[in-house]
Amino acid sequence: MRKVIDCRDYPSESRCTLTISGEEEEVVRAASEHAVSVHGHAAGPELLEQIRAALKNEMPQHA
Predict the structure, then answer these.
(1) In Å, how far from its chain's centre is CA 56?
(2) DSSP letter, residue 58
């Protein structure tokens, strides 16, 4: 099942609205890169763990 993480769920000063969805490892990698480059988080295992814990299942899109 695809996973999703949405910056709007974690309010910040930048008011980021980015949503990332895809296979779990893709989302964790992209979200961690985004968290470091845009939000100033420190890269490392703790960040990856926090991101993985925050993932949600993507809701199927209906036509």
Answers:
(1) 9
(2) P
Structure-token pair, residue 62: 């209906």
- What are the phi and psi torsion angles at 20 (to 5°)? -120, 130
Q: Mind listing the pLDDT tens digit for each residue in 1-58?
A: 899 999 999 877 888 999 999 999 999 999 999 999 999 999 999 999 999 999 999 9
Euclidean distance between CA atoms 60 and 63, whole angstroms: 10
CA–CA distance, 18 with 1 (Å, rounded to integer):
20
Cβ 32 vs Cβ 48: under 8 Å: yes
